[in-house]
Amino acid sequence: MKKVTVVGLGPGAGRDLTGRAREALERCDLIVGYTAYIDLIRDEFSDKETLSTGMRREVDRCRAAVEQAAAGKEVAVVCSGDSGVYGMAGLIYEVSQEYDPVEIEVVPGITAACGGAAVLGAPLTHDFAVVSLSDLLTPWEKIEKRLTAAAQADFVLCLYNPSSRSRPDYLARACDILLRDKPGDTVCGTVRNIGRDGEESHILTLSQLRDAQVDMFTTVFIGNSQTRVIGGKMVTPRGYLQREEAR
Predict the structure, then answer these.
(1) What is residue 1's predicted lDDT score, i.e. its pLDDT?
(2) Architecture of domain 3-107 in this structure
(3) Which residue, of 58, 113, 137, 226, is most buried by count of CB atoms within 10 Å of its CB?
(4) pLDDT tens-digit series, residues 192-245
(5) CA distances from 191 to 30, 118, 217 (A)
(6) pLDDT tens across 87-137, in order?
(7) CATH of 112-235, one of 6.10.250.3280, 3.30.230.10, 3.40.50.150, 3.30.950.10
(8) What are φ and ψ of residue 207, in 5° steps?
(9) Terminal Cα-to-Cα distance of the chain (whole angstroms)
């Protein structure tokens, strides 16, 4: 029985590709994925057969991958970042129920939250929450509740999918929700094209973030009440020095 391996490529593929991910891609017969993600690794794995589809064809991709595995191929399904964080791992398991059993392996990758945090400094050193602002699969009312709960609990927040052509005002709407419970001078950061050509980052306040220009390639970080700027970087202390000072 052949298998499907769901592979996280990391935020930029290339340098952020883990050893396990590289081994899985070298071992497979067929690589399946969203066209943009296939393009990230096409040159390095040019000898591999590929199957790609455009946006919103996730179910078709996963079904094709399972069908090819059931037919005897070793299949790798690639995802940007981590395969289980807004990736295809869960959908592969769901779709696999429609077919004869195939082996499934999940290979993790560096998700945008970790990749972007490293660019900004150390914003995720303490408890944090990750929320996608895309309402394609989650109603906005539920997203609003999650943002409110995270703000009231003083989590650091990492926002995926902060804006797109069809919802250009969603980050501003999210900031308005957060500003009900967080001060306007809360330290925030944005990183675009993490690990890729044209990577850029900015540190700003929550009030400034409301009007910032972002897109689907941007990951947004919103600090908690302890987050501050140290040496030009966004840092959320865990509390080690504070514990020492209290002794």
Answers:
(1) 61
(2) 3-Layer(aba) Sandwich (3.40)
(3) 113
(4) 999 988 999 999 999 999 999 999 999 999 999 999 999 999 999 997 777 667
(5) 32, 10, 8
(6) 999 999 999 999 999 999 999 999 999 999 999 999 999 999 999 999 999
(7) 3.30.950.10
(8) -65, -40
(9) 60
